[in-house]
Design goal:
- With 123 residues, the protein is of the alpha+beta class.
- α1 packs parallel to α2.
- It starts with a strand and ends with a strand.
Length: 123
């Protein structure tokens, strides 16, 4: 995966840059078709803003977070992207496991209650 890093109005420490690269590399476990990541870190007075853009095969995901420190902003943005990728992976697996089949919750409206021997229904 190609990771581009851009800083605006600030300098990113080498250990923060390494931390960001390691954090973005971990996101590959959720999507094998992850092609490129672009990290933009900017500083305005006391605020640091981290924007991460991920390019997948058919999707583009963006997360933008603000914090008082650059590393904290990067971590928050990566957490949001991790959750987005996790949901995407779950959707992909659900589609793959049930081709053409409706989920159990969205059934045809048939009676699913269980009857006891007296004939009363309960769920």
């Amino acid at each position: 995966m190609l990771i581009n890093t851009t800083t605006r109005h600030c300098e990113l420490d080498p250990e923060d840059r390494l931390h960001a690269h390691q954090r973005l590399e971990k996101l590959q476990r959720y999507a094998r078709d992850l092609h490129e990541a672009h990290l933009i870190v900017s500083a305005e007075k006391y605020r640091h803003t981290a924007e991460i853009t991920l390019k997948l095969k058919h999707h583009e995901m963006v997360s933008r977070e603000e914090s008082t420190g650059a590393r904290m902003a990067i971590d928050r943005a990566a957490d949001v992207l991790e959750e987005q990728l996790r949901r995407l992976k779950d959707r992909r697996l659900d589609r793959k496991q049930r081709p053409g089949e409706l989920p159990a919750a969205a059934g045809d409206g048939a009676d699913t209650g269980i009857e006891d021997e007296s004939g009363e229904e309960f769920a």
